[in-house]
Amino acid sequence: MQHQTTMEAGPDRAPPANRANDIDRHVGTRIRERRVMLGLSQQQMADMIGVTYQQAHKYERGINRISAGRLYEIARVLNVPITFFFDGLEGGEDDAMNPRQRMCLELARNFAAISNQKHQEALSQLARALAIQQ
User: Fold this and answer.
1) What pLDDT does residue 128 have?
2) In Å, how far from its chain's centre is CA 111?
3) Which pLDDT does position 89 carry in this prediction?
4) What is the pTM for the complete model shown?
5) Residue 131 within a domain
6) Is residue 77 within 8 Å of residue 45, measured between CB atoms?
């Protein structure tokens, strides 16, 4: 009798918690990051790609897998190449955001929430001036 050494998913076996699930979560995190950077709500993105808010939420959490066609549509809506969603996987980086990434996302979210265009422009000019001083 030959012993099988790899865990393969069969019709009666669920796939093990493995790298594929980590990749789904990573892709979802990258979708969320880009959506927030663009100032889109989950509902807005869901409407743009033709899914429900709940489905978009599950995509971002890595709970539901994204088909190739849907990922293509998401990339088109978020104006990024499909490879954007896989950036950072090669180095085995942790999926958790570092403090700088969290701060950038929070800054983008707060900036998008400013409804007064003059205030947005003033904040943008301040950021430019601070960046030049370094």
Assistant:
1) 84
2) 18
3) 81
4) 0.63
5) yes
6) yes
